[in-house]
Design a protein that fits this description.
The complex is a heterodimer of chains A (about 325) and B (about 1000). In chain A, the strands form 2 sheets. Chain A has a 7-stranded mixed beta sheet with strand order 7-6-8-9-10-11-12, sandwiched between helices. In chain A, strands 2-1-3-4-5 form a 5-stranded parallel beta sheet, sandwiched between helices. In chain A, helix 2 packs across helix 11, helix 3 packs across helix 4 and helix 5 packs across helix 6. With about 325 residues, chain A is an alpha/beta fold. Chain A has 2 domains: about 140 residues, Rossmann fold; about 140 residues, Response regulator (Rossmann fold, 3-Layer(aba) Sandwich), CATH 3.40.50.2300. Chain A has 13 helices and 12 strands. Chain A is elongated and about 100 Å long. Chain B is an alpha+beta fold. Chain B contains 34 helices and 23 strands. In chain B, strands 1, 2, 3, 4, 5 and 6 form a 6-stranded antiparallel beta sheet that branches. Chain B has a 6-stranded antiparallel beta sheet with strand order 14-13-12-17-16-15. The chains are: A alpha/beta (about 325), B alpha+beta (about 1000). Chains A and B meet through helix 1, helix 5, helix 6 and helix 13 of A and helix 2, helix 4, helix 5 and helix 8 of B.
């Protein structure tokens, strides 16, 4: 009797802690699934930024997070089917780019949290209710390309004070672009600049209109927040080079590729910043409770090579303000 | 029952008290230290943990404070330093713009910058995002930032949320122209996004968090951004302290905004008046402590449970036996002495219980004894008396035994008496003495065929055979014998022969006992003998062990064997059997041992007596023999004498004396007793051949216990059924002259003592034989000389030639007829041969005178016997012959010469010789007369019988002459019966032969 009781007690003493240990181990085993949909090669750095950001926040690919990434390259059908796939797989979060792309994803993934990594104006495009609270399953980081339109035009003017006519191409179907154009017009008026506007609905049209850009007719090319031209910034850079015109963009990548200057958010940094939001989402915060963020880093980048190529002598004050100089 | 109940109540109470005490004690011993230690441990751990929590929380808070300070303080400083940049205060607006444009680049938090002039209007405005138009310049004279900063103080606005949902605040610094002159205000709008990110990234433990509140308790930064966006004002102990300006406090527990119990601490950022609060769910923060508490509690409970079990177990274990003891003691106290307390705890309690039991046992015994004693005191006294009487009887018996022992030296009688005395005393029905027959014992060295020094036992480590009684080794080392060595003897081959044989038995059929023989170590008796201590046997084991005959009597239920020992040597055993069912008591055995000791001594004494008697007989025999041997010189009778004496002394069946023929080197039997004639004649032994040959060759005596078993004589033909033998060489001056053999039909007949005796006898005998031989030789030599004289005399007188031979022959014939023999015959022969030797002194003329002799001449002739006497006197051996020679001329009527003896005075030999001499003179030719015829001569003899001759002798002579043998005898002597030619011729031949 006595011995049996003793044995039982010892057994109990050993059993309880071991069971607790097992429970804890099971809890830690959770692996999150993150899907990412990219519209074109230009926005690929966002995914790198996202992954790096999540790593710095403790989510390492293969350990506690897996990624399913697809670059649909402008094919919205592919985007939809991939989104369906992600939903079926019950991913924890889908990361997107651009208003249109995000909207397309949101139409299918109604319950899956969506974090956009870069886009222009979610509020006026109706993607979300407000910056503070989306009111739906979406949150993310905007690129402020739209908001910075005036500032960029000002910077262009400051870089080359002699500018009078500025060439702008936009997709009239792109709401953000339209808003940007509106802002550009207001700013141009303010700065005493004359805008020479061109419309392109697709790449072909864009190529066509860009052929018409002539150094004799304009003093600079200004890229607005337009998905078409942003995605195909290469064409704009070619045109600027051809005509030895200064090209002002919102994309650091474009400056690296040969545009004269850029002022705006960096795709990689945006991706990295949105990782914080993705993390909150993964940890259970409703996207509606996460305010939509401005990009943390808005950088003014000048390509001194291009300046030299086009024979532009940049004022020292402007160069001094640049966050990055490429030469 | 009531009485018992009353007694039991306190008993139970006592039991429970001991049990409870013990239980309580064990519980206290287990629980108290553990509880105290656990509590102390928990207390200490809690303090440490709280300190840790606080320090961790404050560290986190410090980081946030640092960030806040960085954002706000650094920007304020940057603003202030910008205003002091060269050219800024000079009022050149472009210059100021360029300077201010650099700030957003350096400080990414700055969204907008406004330079406000001294009246509150914005002079320059720079935005990170927007294009600033002149319309954007506002009048900010009424704004707090301006009113505060223009007074020379830095301004930090409360946090507000921008359109883009970012927390922002305004920082304004005065633009100082000089130390006291302020020309405007530089204001900046700053967003706190990094602070937010930091706050949202920071985790304290698993789910602890940090947030920032301003003075009013409004949340400035919080991981849950919605709280900031909702501009939540929270109220908790920290906020109160932050308002009061108290920093560095850890609050134990309170409810957080989300209603969760938390522990938290806070830190105040002095410049901003913000409080940084770190909160951690209480459960998590104290998780380790709680776990520790749980474990401690668990351990405590487990220990208590164990202690409880142990307590109950031991309490029961101790209290139960005590109760049993108590109850038992009560029962015993009430007089139930049969009661036994059953306690099996294996400790002192059990011992105590046993002690109780022993006590009650001894109480019971005492009680019983008392009762018994009381009841039968008289009987007891009677028994005691009986016992004393018995003891007296015992002592008397011992005394009787002693008396018997000292009364007789006859062993058998003694033993019989002892048995008769002892058996009734110890109520035994049968008994017997079995004695060791030592005659069977072979001597070690004899068995081993070795000399004494070569004996394997001698000087070796193997002491086994030293224990054998009778071995030479043992004689030298018997002091060292130990009992255990004695036990080894059972294996010794020499011991096999020794058997226990019945000496005297009583109560048993003597005939059936007669043939019983028990070897040493064999059966029960033999074992007792070997072990030298009394051994008893009961019931059926008797049949297997004890001497068969006794064992065969089933009614003898108990038997005892007592070794009889003297001086450490066993001589036999006393075996007793009784019909009593109960075994032998120690007293009986000790009494019997005493008897056995007495008997052993008696046996030894008897043995000594026998030995002494035997020695005496031996000595007397030797003495007698010496005397006898000295008494005769006649070799034949000497040898016979030796043989008979030897047989008498040694008690053998056969004996012989063999003498050595030195020329042939052969032994021949000269005398024998108990041997067949054939054997006597045929036996011829070379030296070294046979037993006698060996003894003669080696010159050493041999003692053979059993010829058939003696390896030395394996090939020797066994003669005359002899089994044991003594063979002693007869030696004179170291030379072997013969062998004396004594043999017996049964084995082991002779002992070393016998050998000694026979050796002595042989020595004597040898000398006697030698003497006899010498004497004979001497005698023969002298006789030859005398005969030579006689021959010489006879040669001188042809008439008397052959006279002496003839006279000798006649004389011997007469002597034989008259019944003489031996020595007398020899004397007569010698006397007859030498009777005329005296004539050597008589002149030849007188002897050969044909005429009558003159008186003078006759006197001279009558002198010849005297002369003869004188000559023969020289030979002492012939002393007996002298009277015959001296008186052979005496006459029966006394008229003869030399001394004139008459009748029976004259020696018989002389009387015979006179007849023979006269007869031969008558029948011979003499110078003085012619020969008479045989018949004439006989007639002449008969006529002179009674006057000149003894008539008996003459009568005998006549008878001899008439007998046919006489002729034969005369032929041998060379005499003729009738004086005829043939006889004469034969006579002549005989004379020649003599010559």
């Amino acid at each position: 009797m006595f011995k049996r009781a003793l044995v039982f007690l010892i057994f109990l003493g050993l059993l309880v802690p071991s069971m607790a240990g097992c429970a804890r181990m099971a809890e830690e085993k959770k692996v999150y699934k993150v899907g990412a949909v990219i519209l074109g090669d230009a926005s690929l750095p966002t995914v790198d930024g996202l992954k790096d950001g999540l790593i710095s926040l403790g989510y390492v690919e293969g350990e506690n997070v897996t990624y399913k990434v697809k670059n649909v390259k402008g094919d919205y059908n592919a985007l939809r089917s991939f989104t369906r796939e992600l939903v079926e797989e019950e991913v924890d979060c889908i990361c997107t780019v651009s208003v249109r792309g995000t909207k397309a994803v949101a139409e299918i993934a109604e319950d899956t949290p969506i974090v956009f990594m870069t886009l222009c104006d979610p509020v006026s495009t109706g993607l979300v209710k407000s910056r503070r609270s989306s009111g739906n399953n979406i949150t993310g980081v905007i690129n402020m390309a739209l908001e910075l339109t005036g500032k960029r035009l000002q910077l262009l003017k400051e870089m080359k004070p002699s500018i009078e006519k500025v060439y702008i191409v936009y997709n009239p179907r792109d709401k953000a672009a339209m808003l940007a154009i509106k802002q550009a017009r207001e700013a141009a008026e303010e700065l005493g600049l004359q805008l020479k506007e061109a419309r392109a609905r697709n790449i072909a049209e864009l190529k066509e209109v860009l052929k018409l850009v002539k150094k004799e007719e304009v003093d600079a090319i200004f890229m607005v927040c337009d998905v078409l031209s942003m995605s195909n910034n290469r064409l704009l850079i070619e045109a600027a080079r051809r005509e030895r015109l200064p090209l002002m963009t919102s994309m650091e990548e474009a400056v690296e590729a040969g545009a004269l200057a850029g002022y705006g958010a960096n795709y990689y940094e945006s991706g990295k910043q949105s990782a914080r939001l993705a993390k909150k989402v993964l940890e259970g915060t409703e996207p509606t409770d996460i305010p939509i963020e401005n990009p943390e880093k808005i950088r003014f980048v000048i390509n001194l090579k291009t300046a030299e190529e086009i024979g532009l002598d940049l004022p020292m004050e402007v160069v001094a303000r640049a966050d990055r100089l490429i030469d | 029952m009531t009485e018992r109940g009353e007694i039991l109540k306190p008993a139970l109470w006592r039991r429970s008290r001991i049990g409870r005490k013990l239980l309580l004690l064990i519980l206290l011993l287990a629980a108290v230290p553990l509880s105290v230690a656990g509590l102390l441990f928990i207390q200490t751990s809690q303090n440490v943990l709280r300190r840790d929590i606080k320090s961790i929380q404050l560290e986190v808070a410090n980081r946030v404070a640092g960030e806040a300070d960085h954002i706000v303080g650094c920007i304020a400083k940057a603003l202030a330093s910008s205003t002091q940049t060269k050219g800024f205060l000079e009022g050149d607006e472009e210059r100021q713009r360029v300077i201010l444009e650099k700030l957003p680049k350096s400080y990414e938090n700055i969204i907008e910058l406004s330079l406000i002039d001294e009246v509150g209007r914005e002079k320059i405005k720079i935005s990170r995002y927007r294009l600033i138009t002149p319309e954007d310049l506002r009048d900010r004279a009424g704004a707090d930032e301006f009113t505060t900063a223009i007074k020379g103080k830095n301004y930090v606005s409360p946090v507000w949320i921008s359109e883009s949902a970012e927390p922002c605040l305004t920082i304004a610094v005065p633009v100082r122209l000089t130390e006291k002159e302020i020309m405007g205000v530089l204001s900046a709008e700053v967003h706190l996004k990094p602070l937010w990110d930091l706050v949202s990234d920071l985790r304290v433990g698993e789910s602890g968090y940090v947030y920032v509140v301003d003075k009013g308790g409004r949340i400035v930064a919080h991981p849950d951004v919605s709280l900031v966006l909702k501009e939540t004002i929270i109220d908790n102990p920290h906020v109160g302290e932050i308002r009061a300006g108290k920093s560095d406090t850890l609050y134990k527990e309170y409810l957080s905004e989300s209603g969760e119990s938390v522990v938290g601490s806070h830190l105040i950022v002095e410049e901003l008046g913000w409080g940084i609060i770190v909160e951690q769910p209480t459960a998590e923060a104290y998780a380790s402590l709680n776990q520790m508490r749980l474990r401690t509690l668990g351990l405590l409970l487990a220990t208590l449970a164990v202690a409880l079990f142990m307590g109950i177990y031991y309490a029961r274990r101790i209290a139960k036996p005590i109760e049993v003891l108590y109850e038992g003691a009560e029962i015993i106290e009430k007089g139930d002495l049969e009661h036994r307390i059953e306690v099996k705890t294996g400790d002192e309690l059990e011992e105590l219980a046993e002690e109780f039991n022993r006590m009650s046992e001894s109480l019971k015994r005492s009680k019983e004894e008392l009762e018994e004693w009381g009841k039968t005191l008289e009987q007891k006294v009677g028994e005691r008396t009986e016992e004393i009487r018995h003891r007296v009887k015992e002592l008397t018996t011992l005394f009787e035994v002693s008396k018997v022992v000292s009364s007789t030296l006859e062993l058998e009688e003694l033993l019989k008496k002892i048995l008769d005395t002892v058996l009734p005393l110890i109520k035994a029905q049968a008994g017997g003495f079995f004695l060791l027959d030592m005659r069977e014992l072979v001597k070690c060295w004899e068995f081993m065929k070795c000399g004494k020094k070569e004996c394997p036992a001698y000087g070796s480590d193997n002491l086994e055979c030293w224990a054998i009684p009778g071995t030479i080794c043992r004689d030298e080392v018997h002091e060292k014998i130990e009992d255990k060595i004695r036990a080894c003897c059972a294996r010794c081959p020499l011991f096999k022969g020794i058997k226990l044989k019945p000496a005297v038995v009583c109560g048993l059929d003597e005939r059936s006992v007669q043939d019983v023989e028990i070897g040493i170590g064999e059966s029960f008796c033999g074992q007792a003998l070997l072990e030298c201590r009394p051994t008893t046997a009961e019931g059926s084991s008797c049949e297997a062990g004890l001497c068969g005959v006794i064992a065969r009597k089933p009614e003898l239920k108990n038997q005892v064997v007592l070794p009889l020992m003297t001086k450490g040597e066993v001589v036999g055993v006393l075996v007793l059997g009784t019909q009593r069912p109960h075994p032998w008591t120690t007293e009986e055995i000790s009494l019997l041992s005493a008897v056995a000791d007495e008997v052993a001594v008696a046996i030894e004494n008897s043995q000594l007596y026998v030995d002494a008697k035997r020695a005496a007989v031996e000595f007397r025999s030797i003495y007698e023999m010496s005397k006898a041997l000295g008494g005769t010189l006649e070799i034949k009778s000497l040898l016979d004498l030796i043989l008979h004496l030897s047989l008498d002394m040694l008690g053998g069946d056969k004996a012989s004396i063999m003498l050595l023929d030195e020329e042939k080197g052969e032994l021949t039997i000269e005398a024998a007793a108990g041997l067949s004639e054939e054997a006597i004649k045929q036996t011829r032994l070379k030296l070294g051949e046979g037993i006698a040959g060996l003894a003669a060759e080696k010159g050493e005596p041999l003692l053979i216990s059993d010829i058939s078993k003696d390896p030395r004589f394996k090939g020797v033909r066994k003669r005359e059924d002899i089994c044991s033998a003594l063979c002693v060489p007869l030696k004179v001056k170291g030379m072997v002259i013969g062998v004396l053999n004594v043999g017996a039909v049964c084995p082991h007949m002779f002992t070393e003592g016998d050998l000694r005796i026979i050796s002595t006898v042989a020595g004597q005998a040898a000398i006697a034989i030698h003497n006899a031989r010498l004497f004979t030789q001497l005698e023969e030599l002298y006789l030859a000389t005398v005969k030579a004289f006689v021959a010489a005399i006879e040669a001188k007188d042809p008439y008397t030639r052959g006279h002496s031979e003839r006279v000798t022959s006649f004389s011997l014939a007469m002597a034989e007829r008259l019944g003489l023999s031996g020595r007398d015959m020899e004397d007569i022969r010698t006397a007859a041969l030498l009777h005329d030797v005296g004539k050597i002194g008589v002149k030849e003329e007188i002897l050969n005178k044909t005429t009558s002799l003159t008186d003078e001449e006759y006197r001279i002739v009558k002198m010849h016997p005297l002369i003869a006497t004188k000559i023969v006197e020289q030979i002492p051996l012939l002393a007996d012959v002298i009277p015959i020679i001296a008186h052979h001329h005496e006459r029966y009527d006394g008229n003869g010469y030399l001394d004139g003896l008459a009748g029976e005075e004259i020696p018989l030999g002389a009387r015979i010789l006179a007849v023979a001499d006269a007869f031969d003179a008558m029948i011979s030719e003499r110078p003085y007369h012619s020969a008479l015829s045989f018949t004439e001569a006989v007639g002449e003899l008969k006529r002179n019988a009674g006057s000149q001759f003894d008539p008996k002798v003459v009568e005998a002579f006549c008878e001899v002459l008439e007998k046919p043998q006489f002729g034969k005898r005369f032929k041998e002597a060379g005499l003729m019966v009738e004086p005829s030619k043939s006889t004469r011729r034969r006579s002549g031949q005989a004379k020649q032969k003599v010559n």
